[in-house]
Amino acid sequence: MYAEERQQAIAALAAQRGRLSVSDLAVEFGVTTETVRRDLAVLERVGLLRRVHGGAVAATALTVVEPGVAERESIRTGVKDRIAAAAVQFVPPEGGSLLLDAGTTTGRLVGMLPPDRDLVVVTNAVPAAARLTSLPGVRLLLLGGTVRGVTQAAVGAHAVQALAEIKVDVAFIGTNALSADHGLTTPDPDEAAVKRAMIASSRRTVVLADSSKLGHDQLVRFGPIDAIDTLVTDDEVDPTFVAALEERGVEVVIA
User: Fold this and answer.
1) How far apart are CA 101 and CA 104, in angstroms?
2) Total structural domains in the chain?
3) Helix 3-17, helix 22-29: angle, nearest 10
């Protein structure tokens, strides 16, 4: 099979299956993984697919559709609880400050904060803010802006401007997707702008993401791999993905 024929076949498979693995394609077409990666690079340049960690997804798979908070709250609850519990170790000591991004995994961190520790907590998440008011040691700063119904997060110029004026010890960031090639991504540009500003406003960035979000891309990039200090994820993560991040200097904590 000529390279052009193989690339056409790969593009057709991407449209049919949605996601392709480099190793599976190598076996299917009887070529090396290096050849497959070259084919994927060609197809990505012409817009037929997008490469992700370990393979590729169809271009149409990168949508702007995101599930609402209520739907996401019921998905992988045990895994999210473990991730949040493992992330507590990065909460700053007495008198410290932290940013809490909107999200169902980051939101679980609220219930695990030490109740007697004096902290300044900045958030754009309406549900998290409501729960934080009950913690006696927390001084809460709620970012203003337009609240997106789907994520219940404040976004927009007011939130971004407020973040530009502060510097916190740690930012706990959620993400819709994370790939070694493309970094941190989310479907919404306004959400991405706030997340980007949060990373810029923190001395340390801790990303909380379960393994189902790893190796994928969404529409809008809000941070490169190099922006992440620590990733907290679950034990279903692909070891090769962990190795790729650690090679880039990212600490990976398995919950």
Assistant:
1) 10
2) 2
3) 130
